[in-house]
């Protein structure tokens, strides 16, 4: 599993099983059925561990796919409002690239809202978050065990968010200093006949998408900006 994915507290689970096994051993009733009860309870504890591992794996896949879906939606609108047609305009209501982080996190929240996600935040190219505790119970014979597991995740976003935010900052700085974006910004672009600049941030991170089957896509992040109507220095 990706080291940046959900942390699997295997050590905690192993220690949990060891401690509960000791408890079972100590508290087992005396007699010829002791070994049989001990073996049965040990099997149930291993099943409990396997359930926890399976739940953690499934959650990892849910978060990963949700972030991939988020990247696709975010990139399709250049990180701004749908009505902006991919154009950045500072200080506008819907098209202001200063809202990129907020817009991205809103999409993350929408795509994770059905999965008991309690907190989430953006950190560079990752989303950090926490999930409602996983609770596991074993109530059998004279043994009752309740195990609550804290689950946090650190999942990489399959898009170079840091580069996009740095480019936004450089563009704004150039515009505020009334410098020509074509010379000031060190990033490839194309220019149309109206002088609108088109930037493309290539993405070498494949994302999972489900249509009729599981497929992978490389989603580039593209946006336009009109240096003459950028929204900077309008006051």
Listing every helix as H and every strand as E from the N terminus to the C terminus, the arrangement reads HHEHEEEHHEEEEE
Secondary structural class? alpha+beta
The number of strands is: 9
Q: Unreliable stretches, pLDDT < 50, 5 or more residues?
A: 1-11, 18-36
Number of helices: 5
Radius of gyration: 26 Å
Please give the order of strands in the largest beta sheet: 1-9-6-5
Multimeric status of the protein: single chain
The count of domains is 1
Percent of residues in helices = 40-55%
Shape: elongated
What is the mean pLDDT? Answer: 81
Structure notes:
The chain is an alpha+beta fold. The protein has one domain. It has helices at 10-27, 34-76, 100-112, 161-176, 181-184; strands at residues 87-88, 117-123, 126-140, 143-156, 189-191, 197-201, 206-210, 214-218, 221-225. The strands form 3 sheets. A 4-stranded mixed beta sheet has the order 1-9-6-5, with no helix packed on it. Strands 2-3-4 form a 3-stranded antiparallel beta sheet. α2 crosses α3. The chain starts with 9 loop residues before the first helix and ends in a 10-residue tail after the last strand. Residues 1-11 and 18-36 have low confidence and may be disordered.
Topology:
Layout: H1 10-27, H2 34-76, E1 87-88, H3 100-112, E2 117-123, E3 126-140, E4 143-156, H4 161-176, H5 181-184, E5 189-191, E6 197-201, E7 206-210, E8 214-218, E9 221-225
Parallel strand pairs: 1-9
Antiparallel strand pairs: 2-3, 3-4, 5-6, 6-9, 7-8
Helix pairs in contact: 1-2, 2-3
């Amino acid at each position: 599993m990706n080291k940046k994915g959900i942390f699997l507290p295997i050590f905690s689970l192993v220690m949990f099983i060891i401690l509960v096994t000791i408890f079972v051993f100590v508290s087992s009733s005396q007699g010829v059925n002791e070994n049989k009860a001990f073996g049965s309870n040990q099997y149930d504890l291993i099943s409990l561990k396997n359930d926890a591992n399976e739940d953690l794996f499934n959650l990892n896949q849910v978060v990963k796919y949700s972030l991939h879906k988020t990247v696709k939606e975010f990139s399709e609108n250049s990180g701004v409002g749908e009505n902006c047609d991919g154009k950045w305009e500072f200080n506008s209501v819907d098209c202001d690239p200063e809202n990129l982080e907020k817009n991205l996190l809103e999409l993350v929240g929408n795509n994770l809202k059905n999965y008991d996600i309690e907190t989430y935040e953006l950190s560079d190219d990752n989303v950090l978050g926490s999930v409602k505790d996983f609770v596991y119970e074993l109530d059998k014979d004279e043994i009752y065990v309740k195990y609550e597991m804290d689950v946090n995740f650190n999942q990489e976003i399959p898009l170079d968010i840091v580069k996009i935010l740095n480019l936004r900052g450089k563009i704004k700085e150039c515009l505020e200093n009334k410098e020509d974006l074509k010379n000031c910004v060190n990033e490839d672009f194309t220019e149309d006949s109206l002088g609108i600049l088109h930037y493309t941030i290539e993405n070498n991170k494949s994302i999972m998408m489900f249509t009729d089957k599981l497929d992978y896509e490389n989603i580039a992040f593209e946006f336009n900006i009109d240096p003459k109507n950028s929204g900077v220095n309008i006051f």
